[in-house]
Amino acid sequence: MIHIAICDDDPRSAGLVESLILDNRERFSEKIDMSVYFSAERFVEALGQGSIFDIIFMDIEMGGMDGIMAGHVLRADDANDPAQLFYISSYEQYHLQLFDVRPSGFIKKPVGQKSLLDKLIPAVQKAIRIRQQGKQHFLPVQLKGKERLVPLRDIHYLESRIRRISLMTRDGEIQYYGTLGEEARKLPSGYFIRIHQSYIVNFYSVKEISARRIVLITGDELPVSEKNSIPVRKAYMKFRGNLA
């Protein structure tokens, strides 16, 4: 699924862009999910709550925070580097100010179908390529009907709690429905390993390891089951050897 954000404080302008995308969504091989924000503040708030977008259509001049400042907030988080940001405006004098937020393009108002599709079609194709290439570096997680990609490097461990997964990351805990078996199939076996019926650990987060216990760099202590004790230690030694 391709996630698109539209940010414009003019409901008519935002609605026009939304309608043009909806009218052409059958052109694409993946489903399109859209979120519309009528202020830059609401868009930034969504980013702070973990929303990740593949494509963003952003007005520049808005009451309160403008689109350029919202673009700086977007680019301040490395997780948003793949996002394609298109600015929409009646004015073209902003080009130099947009340099630092690395926009993918500019659409002049009023937005027409051709000018939008000239940007949208290649942007969706690029987003699909990025997603296919990048999924090997992320764990896809379903949260409230939306897919969130969690960088593997940020994961410390996963814990299973009766059909719910607690994903412990650098930024805190993420909870969602699933099983460890399902998640294990999505994770690289070279440095993620199941140490217990209820735990999968990222070896990069391990500080100490013994026959029946693992201590993480976070200070968390996790049990190693008896049947997994030897395989876990062998896997960890192989992991350490590959780092040398």
Spans with pLDDT under 50 lasting ≥5 residues? none
User: What is the gyration radius calculated from CA atoms?
Assistant: 22 Å
Order the strands across the largest sheet as they lie in space. 2-1-3-4-5
| Residue share in helix | 25-40%
Summed up, the helix count is: 6
Domain Response regulatory: 3-124
Modified residues (4-aspartylphosphate): 59
InterPro entries: CheY-like_superfamily (IPR011006), LytR-like (IPR046947), LytTR_DNA-bd_dom (IPR007492), Sig_transdc_resp-reg_receiver (IPR001789)
Function: Required for high-level post-exponential phase expression of a series of secreted proteins.
Give descriptors for this structure.
five-stranded antiparallel β-sheet, two-component regulatory system, Rossmann fold, Sig_transdc_resp-reg_receiver, 6 helices, phosphorelay response regulator activity, 244 residues, phosphoprotein, five-stranded parallel β-sheet, 2 domains, alpha/beta
How would you describe this structure to a colleague?
The protein is of the alpha/beta class and 244 residues long. The chain has two domains: 2-136, Response regulator (Rossmann fold), CATH 3.40.50; 152-243, LytTr DNA-binding domain (OB fold (Dihydrolipoamide Acetyltransferase, E2P), Beta Barrel), CATH 2.40.50. The protein is 30% helix and 32% strand. The strands form four sheets. It has a five-stranded parallel beta sheet with strand order 2-1-3-4-5. Strands 10-9-8-12-11 form a five-stranded antiparallel beta sheet. The protein is elongated and about 65 Å long.
